[in-house]
Amino acid sequence: MAIGRNLFLLGAALALITTPGLAQTPSSDTAAIGSDAQALDIAKRAIAFRSVAGAGNQTPQLAAYLKSVLVAGGFADSDVTITPVDDTAYLVARWRGSDPSAKPLVVSGHIDVVEAKPADWQRDPFTPVVENGYLYGRGATDMKLDAAVAMTALLRMKHAGFKPRRDIVLEFSGDEETRMKTSALIAEQLKNAELVINIDGGGGRFAEDGKPQFFTWNGAEKTYADFELTVTNPGGHSSAPRPQNAINQLSAALVRIGQYRFTPQLSDVTRTFFREAAKQKTGELAAAMRAFAENPKDEKAIAVLAADPAYVGQIGTTCVSTMVSGGHALNALPQRATANINCRIFPGVKPAEVMATLKQVAAEPALTIRDVSEGSVANDASPMRPDFVAAVTRAVGKAWPGVPVFPSMSAGASDSMWFRYHHVPSYGASPTFIKESDDFSHGLNERTEVRNIAPGIRYYVSLFGDLAK
């Protein structure tokens, strides 16, 4: 049954590659293998696939197209596998090294994207357009352009005759934006890796005048957690109110939680981040960054950073109310009131500890709390490995000479979480630079400057080459 379904999906995927709608975008066959033009062609073709979870998900078809490009570029057909999972699929391609005993270098990304409604966009989100130096379309930033650039870099290395000592494994998950089921399966399969380069994290910043300012790589990410808070009462007729009211009790608890601040924390990654980021800032914010890096108990520094949405998540665990529901009739006392608290937990802190703190802060005896998180596991920060730090610094220097390089922590979740869960060091290290005003990933009119392609390929060739030796 499963084998038949897999063959059906792959056959359908290969057939859809040549459908008229997708043929409107340039084929990678029109560009030289390993060239900048090929990277743009692959990105445009990838954007044209509507790789969105649910009915009509074209992630399996996109995986089949990418496999065809890799095989045409020199990968053995048997070394590129596509595994269907529910309505999606994931791809794993292996470039075999000369030393079978060496642990592999994993290059990690994803090929699914978040939903995009054409009626809301200025351009159709699944019709790639290059205009005024930008590639437009869903996935232009997150992260089909990066996938294309990384693939092209590997193909360029193959054609240049590079011989890796350790295997290089390129993998693309198929539901990173939703359930992360394929992400977990891939990490389980590759948990013997030496380290992971996650091309869906990190990156550089362009100033609004277009000048590159700095580059950061992600050495850690916060743990995602959802906690359900519930208060129940016997209820009754609304004409006979009682002192205990489930909605009132829950509301008071939520206010107390909203006013609570978790103890600020530092790690090697965030301490270095604040020290280096302070050099890019001025005034009160720069002073607060320097002070916090030296003393995470500095109240003045904490107040400045906590007031800035861009940095409040960098100084410790945060929890916020995201959903609330209560009552069962307009003329009845509520029998139940529930709320969801979403937390982004500092690396090294266990979700159970946070849940216990929320229960204590709520200070409501009738309240129960349970962890309802899905698709998330706790993970610690990756070590600041000298070999990786040296390799990524050297690679950025080749792509964007003179640009400062320093680590950062991601407040969001990525596939790195699953590798770190298996104690495999994972680093977000995309070479894509973007202006703050151009950051539309997950939003409308997503776009990325195409001038990222040439330096991005140089960066990946250097990084992959150094770490695969």
UniProtKB/TrEMBL annotation:
InterPro entries to which the protein is assigned, alphabetical: Bact_exopeptidase_dim_dom, Pept_M20A, Peptidase_M20, Peptidase_M20_dimer
Superkingdom of origin organism: Bacteria
Domain (Peptidase M20 dimerisation): residue spans on this chain: 220-366
UniProt entry keywords in alphabetical sequence: Hydrolase, Metal-binding, Protease, Signal, Zinc
Secretion signal, residue range per the UniProt entry: 1-23
Keyword check for Zinc: yes
Record-stated family: Belongs to the peptidase M20A family.
Official protein name in the record: M20/M25/M40 family metallo-hydrolase
Organism per entry: Sphingomonas citri
Organismal lineage: Bacteria, Pseudomonadati, Pseudomonadota, Alphaproteobacteria, Sphingomonadales
